[in-house]
Design goal:
Layout lengths: L1 H4 L2 H19 L5 H15 L2 H12 L2 H11 L5 H9 L1 E2 L3 H7 L3 E2 L12 H22 L12 H10 L14 H9 L1 H13 L1 H16 L4 H6 L2 H24 L6 H21 L5 H10 L4 H14 L3 H21 L13 H35 L29
Antiparallel strand pairs: 1-2
Helix pairs in contact: 2-3, 2-4, 2-8, 4-17, 4-18, 5-14, 5-17, 6-14, 10-18, 11-17, 11-18, 11-19, 12-18, 14-15, 14-17, 15-16, 15-17, 15-19
């Protein structure tokens, strides 16, 4: 509940500063226990980031606008940085290199007796994180009311435009009743398990994709570079799926298409995983392409995050559900790698089979979620005399939960 008690943007910025410092410190670790301890701290500090981002976006954008912003925010572009960093490294005289285009040399091509080259990767990425967290702390406001770049009139407009969400802005008081409702709401658990299933491919593929690529006959160095298209495919999936949701909300506002787009994205990933499982080992390019398309799961996952932001009202309930969604993400990333056995390389049949199974489970769960939302909306339509109106003086900005607010309608 830290995000409810403390300023959201400042909390995320501080967490990222410490995260970056610990990442830099990881480059100085001298033994395995130290590495594990530092990795545990990194996981703890990552906890407020995704839930915090969900809260920030819900304060600033209407429900029809949120999905596109989620898609722009969550991508696989980080691989386009980590891949080249793992493959190539600029030597310390970077200023001279920028000016004279000299002294550029690859980590993979550094030869010598030093086993310490891997540490450079942590120093670079940790430094990048610290720099960006300072930018975040300086420029990201905790809520529209505290935005220094808005006039008082613009702040009122910013708050009023999200009135239609019926989800409120922010409330620093913890409400036990909302916490209990979140834990007893079937939609909470359906979305929790969907996020467990949909992220199993992330836990497996993210950790083992370099080994899968190496098993296709590429060198370790080339395998690192060939992970870059994985991030590009994730980004394409995120932009395509969330852009489709945005366009559907804009031009077909009466149709509920979010769940259908999730199903489409899941089917794409499932088909790719099937090819990865069945194609012969000598079909190198086919298996490599299938592995890349297997990363299409990211788009459906991001849409599910936008559904959480759009379909949960009441600040305590929203914070609780966001925390559970992040917990589901962590659980799936623990589960995923367990199916990739070293004695099954390079096919990893159990791992790929687990990914296929996770797609089936995620499809089943999201269909149940869609049916639940549809049923609740139909029941509310029959009872709500003010259905379809934009202003509701009895519920607007009252920090009511979606169950308490008769005017609330679920997106699916």
């Amino acid at each position: 509940m830290i995000l409810q008690r403390l300023p959201i943007a400042k909390t995320m910025a501080i967490a990222q500063v410490i995260w970056g410092i610990i990442l830099i410190g990881t480059g100085f670790a001298q033994n395995f226990p130290t590495m594990i301890a530092l990795r545990l701290l990194l996981g703890i500090l990552e906890a407020p980031i995704i839930p915090g981002n969900l809260l920030v976006l819900s304060m600033w954008y209407t429900r029809s606008e949120q999905s596109l912003r989620y898609g722009l925010m969550y991508t696989g572009l980080s691989v386009c940085f980590t891949g080249p960093i793992g493959y190539a490294y600029v030597l310390p005289y970077v200023a001279f290199a920028l000016l004279a285009c000299v002294n550029i040399i690859s980590i993979g091509f550094i030869h010598g007796d030093s086993p310490e080259i891997w540490r450079i990767f942590f120093w670079i990425t940790g430094g990048m994180t610290v720099v960006w967290s300072l930018v975040l702390g300086l420029f990201l406001p905790d809520n529209p009311v505290k935005a220094k770049f808005l006039s008082e009139r613009e702040k009122v407009i910013a708050i009023d435009r999200v009135r239609v969400n019926q989800t409120g802005i922010e409330n620093k008081k913890f409400k036990k009743a909302q916490f209990i409702e979140a834990m007893l709401d079937p939609k909470t658990w359906l979305m929790f398990f969907f996020n467990v299933w949909v992220n199993v491919p992330n836990g497996g593929l993210t950790n083992f994709s370099p080994l899968i690529i190496k098993g296709l006959g590429y060198t370790s160095q080339r395998s690192t570079l060939l992970t870059m298209p994985c991030g590009i495919m994730q980004t394409v999936s995120s932009y395509l799926c969330n852009g489709s949701v945005f366009l559907a909300a804009k031009y077909l506002p009466k149709l509920q298409l979010r769940g259908c787009i999730i199903i489409f994205g899941e089917l794409v990933g499932m088909i790719a995983s099937t090819f990865l499982y069945t194609l012969p080992l000598n079909n190198l390019h086919g298996r490599l392409g299938a592995m890349y398309v297997s990363y299409f799961y990211l788009g459906p996952y991001i849409i599910s995050l936008s559904l959480v932001g759009a379909n949960v009202s009441g600040h305590t309930k929203k914070v609780t559900v966001n925390a559970m969604i992040f917990l589901a993400y962590c659980i799936s990333n623990i589960i995923g790698p367990q199916f990739f056995k070293s004695d099954q390389a390079p096919l990893y049949p159990l791992g790929i089979g687990a990914i296929l199974g996770s797609y089936v489970l995620s499809l089943t769960t999201i269909i149940l979620y869609m049916m639940t939302c549809w049923f609740d909306n139909k029941r509310r339509d029959a009872r709500d005399a003010a259905a379809g109106e934009r202003l509701h003086a009895d519920t607007d900005f009252q920090d009511l939960t979606d169950k308490e607010n008769i005017h609330f309608r679920y997106l699916w």
